[in-house]
């Protein structure tokens, strides 16, 4: 009997409503070829939902999602909704409650895509971002904000457990790749939190003597992303640094629209969630011009997580063929629409 995967589909806002259905169409096509099936349910959660209901997802939303094998997600956010709402994050809630402590964000060159770097060297690395603690724990407050003595404080929290588990993921991933982990901190100035990070990572590294391990400061790392990105294999970093580095990673690929990602619970106690690295891009929504390659790549990362490796590789090969054939959206200098890209990928499967 062939396997069936039950997928929660959450397009979110803006271009999510255009690229998620296209990505899902690719998923259905690849499933047919590889002898497994998909069932799915759509959820209209996000900032648009918040404007109508006062919350980003319903009270029982997490319970509902928990029953699925995976979540295929677009992006949440609209200009009319305050970005700093502590409750905001649909994304934040799902990541934290489902212990999706790894954010897996690959960066690579696409054939036929012009990128901003002069170097023609092939780039292929994965940013492994700690996804639930660190700088994003939202602990702190604003004190007397309207007064001359006002202040704003955010605390970063790095726990041994949190550092160890993401480090193990990175080192195991490196074993499947080119056997190298570079960990990124700023422990020369954040001398408590990030030197603890350094210490714990170094301890974990000792358990993987076959994997090369080095360390780089975030400032130097951003320079190296631009000057010699080919030196990286697995880039292990904190929540905030990983957030910033992945936009830079998207940019050196040629567009933010190219990056796919997974919010992963490696133990599979909860469903993992797969989404492009960019936001909901309301500025270009509704015109069939959004680049869906990152969303489609996220589908491949999802299939890999579910154990459908051949199907995942099939999608990646089809993406490469499509960009090579010049099927490129406006952000890549082409004139293909969102739907045409998905059509091309499906044809190339
Ligand atoms: P978030 O806070 O959710 O990360 P953001 O404020 O960083 O969102 P994005 O929505 O990622 O912003 O958009 C940044 C820029 O990149 C916008 O100009 C947007 O149009 C462009 N962009 C993002 N995704 C795509 C895409 N898939 N195709 C084309 N352009 C995109
Ligand atoms: Mg962003």
Automatic annotation (TrEMBL):
It is an enzyme of class 1 (oxidoreductase). This is D-malate dehydrogenase (decarboxylating). It catalyses: (R)-malate + NAD(+) = pyruvate + CO2 + NADH. Residues 6-345 form the Isopropylmalate dehydrogenase-like domain. PROSITE patterns: IDH_IMDH (PS00470). SMART domains: Iso_dh. InterPro entries: ICDH/IPMDH, IsoCit/isopropylmalate_DH_CS, IsoPropMal-DH-like_dom, TTC_DH. It comes from Algibacter luteus. It comes from the Bacteria. The keyword Nuclease does not apply. Keywords: Manganese, Metal-binding, NAD, Oxidoreductase. Its EC number is 1.1.1.83.
């Amino acid at each position: 009997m062939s396997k069936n995967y039950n997928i929660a589909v959450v397009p979110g806002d803006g271009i999510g409503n255009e690229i998620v259905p296209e990505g899902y169409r690719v998923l259905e096509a690849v499933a047919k070829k590889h002898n497994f099936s998909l069932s799915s349910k759509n959820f209209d959660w996000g900032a648009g939902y918040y404007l109508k209901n006062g919350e980003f997802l319903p009270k029982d939303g997490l319970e509902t999602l928990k029953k699925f094998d995976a979540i295929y997600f677009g992006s949440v956010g609209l200009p009319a909704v305050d970005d700093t709402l502590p409750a905001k994050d649909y994304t934040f809630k799902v990541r934290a409650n489902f212990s999706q402590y790894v954010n897996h964000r690959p960066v690579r060159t696409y054939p036929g895509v012009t990128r901003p770097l002069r170097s023609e060297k092939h780039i292929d690395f994965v940013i492994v971002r700690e996804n639930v603690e660190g700088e994003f724990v939202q602990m702190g407050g604003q004190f007397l904000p309207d007064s001359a003595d006002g202040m704003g404080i955010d605390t970063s929290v790095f726990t041994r457990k949190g550092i160890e588990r993401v480090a193990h993921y990175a080192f195991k991933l490196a074993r499947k790749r080119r056997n190298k982990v570079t960990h990124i901190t700023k422990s020369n100035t954040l001398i408590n939190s990030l030197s603890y990070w350094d210490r714990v990572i170094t301890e974990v590294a000792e358990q993987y003597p076959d994997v090369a391990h080095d360390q780089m400061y975030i400032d130097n790392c951003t320079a190296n992303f631009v000057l010699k990105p080919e030196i990286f294999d697995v880039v292990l970093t904190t929540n905030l640094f990983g957030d910033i580095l992945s936009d830079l990673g998207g940019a050196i690929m040629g567009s933010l629209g190219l990056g796919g990602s997974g919010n992963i619970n490696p133990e599979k106690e909860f469903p993992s969630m797969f989404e492009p690295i960019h936001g909901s891009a309301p500025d270009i929504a509704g015109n069939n011009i959004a680049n869906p390659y990152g969303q489609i790549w996220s589908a491949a990362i999802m299939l890999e997580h579910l154990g459908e490796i051949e199907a995942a590789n099939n999608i990646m090969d089809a993406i490469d063929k499509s960009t090579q054939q010049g099927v490129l959206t406006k952000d890549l200098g082409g004139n293909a629409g969102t739907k045409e890209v998905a059509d091309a990928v499906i044809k190339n499967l």
